[in-house]
Amino acid sequence: MTPVPPAPAPPAPAPRSAYDLSREELAGLLADEPPYRVRQVWDGLHRRARRPGEMTDLPRSLRERLEGALPVALGEISRRSADGGGTVKWLFELADGRRVETVLMAYPDRVTVCVSTQAGCAMGCAFCATGQSGFERHLSAGEIVEQVVAGIRAARPRRLSNVVFMGMGEPLANYGRTWAAIERIHGELGISARHLTLSTVGLVPGIRRLARATLPVNLALSLHAANDELRDRLVPMNRRYPLAALAEACAEYVAASKRRLSIEWALIDGTNDRPSDMAELAEFARPLGAHVNLIPLNPTPGYAPGGSPPHRVADARDTLLRLGVNATVRATRGVEIGAACGQLAARGTGPVVGLPRVR
Ligand code: SAH
Ligand code: SF4
Asked: Which of 110, 138, 213, 220 could cross-link to 199 by cystine, CB 3.0-4.6 Å?
C-alpha cells in the first residue's frame, strides 16, 4: 500500500497585531540579537505598553526593524470624548479596513476599558446598533489585547484597572481568541481576573465552557426579558437557547466559578419595564443570586422604542429590591458620542472634541 503523505499544515495566519505573537515567535524574530532583547521587547510591549518606536532602550536600527515587524493593528481614525473628558471613544481601522470601537471610562475609583471582540455581530438583537449592522469578522486575540493597551496608554497617569468585554460583538461566539486575549491581559498586562468581565447574550455552550475555565472572570448575562415569548423577539438567540437552558448553564457557572453573576437589563419603555416583567426577572435572578444592572435603553438608528423614563427606571429598581433582588441603575456614559451600551457601530458618530482629559 502506498503510504498517504501527510497533509501539508495550513499556513499560519499572518499576525494581525504585535500582540498576536507568542513569546517564542518574538524570540524567533530576534534570533540574531542577544538573548536579553526578547525580555526587553516583551516587557516593552506588555508591562510598559510601548510601541517599538518608543523603546528607547533599544538600538535605533532594531527599533526601526521592529516597527515594521511588529505592526500596530489598530489605526486610530478618531478619538472623541464626553462626560467632561471622563469617557473616550476610539474608532479604529484594522489592517483589512474593518472598523471597531473601544471606550475608556474613568471613574473616581477605577478606570475601565470596554473592548470589542468582533467587527459587527451575528446575533441580531433588534435594539443594538452593532447587531443592526451584521457580522463582519472575528477579531484576533492580539486585536483585542491591543485595545486594552490603548486604554492603558490613554489612562495614564492613572492605572487601567478593569476590562469589560462589552463592546462590539459576542465574546462567546469568538471564544478561543477572546480567551487567549484574557490570558494575555491577565498574565502579561497584569489585570487580575476579578477585574475582567465578559458579557454574553446567552450562548449556553460558551457559558458552560467558561464555568470550567481556569481564570475566574466575571460573567454578565444580557437578559432583557425573562419570558421566552418576549425574549425570542428581543434577542433572537433565545430561540436556540431558551431561558430554562440558560438558567441551568448560569447555575453551573456560579457553582463552578464561585463568582457572582450579573444580569444586564436594558429598560425599554412599555416593553420590559412593567411590574410583571420585574416579577419574571426576579424569579430568574433570585435562584442564581445574581445582581441586576438596569440601564435605560440607549437610542440606536434602527430601533424605534425608547428607553424607559427615569420614574419607571426607579420603579423597576424598587420592585426588584422589594422582591429580594439586588439591583442598581447603571449611569449611562457617552450617549452624545454614541459610546454608550449598544451604540457602537463603527460609524464614529459624535463630534470630535480634541484629545481627552481622563480624570
Ligand atoms: N454581545 C454581548 C456584549 C456586547 S453588547 C452581549 O450582548 O452581552 C454590550 C451590552 O450592551 C449588552 O448587555 C447589550 O444587551 C447592551 N445593549 C445593546 N444595545 C443596547 C441599547 N440600545 N441600550 C442599552 N444597552 C444595550
Ligand atoms: Fe450582538 Fe450583544 Fe448587540 Fe446582541 S446586544 S447584537 S449579542 S453585540
From this structure: 220
Report which protein residue has its CA nearest ligand 1's atom 7: 201
Respond yes or no: is residue 101 known to be catalytic.
Answer: yes
Kindly name the residue from 33, 101, 250, 252 that is annotated as catalytic: 101
Pocket test for ligand 1, best of 128, 163, 170 (most atoms within 8 A of CB): 128
User: How much is the pTM?
Assistant: 0.92
202/222 Cα distance (integer angstroms): 7
Residue whose CA is at the smallest distance from ligand 2 atom 4: 125
pLDDT number for residue 346: 65
Any idea which fold 75-337 has? TIM Barrel (3.20.20)
Q: Given this model, what pLDDT does residue 85 score? A: 84
Say how many Å lie between the CA of residue 94 and the centre of ligand 2.
20
Q: Which of 201, 203, 235, 241 to mutate to test the pocket of ligand 2 (most atoms within 8 A of CB)?
A: 201
Domain 18-69 has CATH 1.10.150.530: yes
Q: Which ligand is nearest to the CA of 238?
A: 2
Q: How far apart (Å, rounded) are the C-alpha atoms in residues 243 and 103?
A: 30
Question: Mean pLDDT, to the nearest integer, of 157-166?
Answer: 97
Tell me the domain boundaries of the chain: 18-69, 75-337
Handedness of CA 305, 296, 223, 280 (dihedral sign): negative
What confidence score (pLDDT) does residue 344 get?
A: 76
Q: Is the dihedral of CA 31, 34, 39, 43 positive or negative?
A: negative
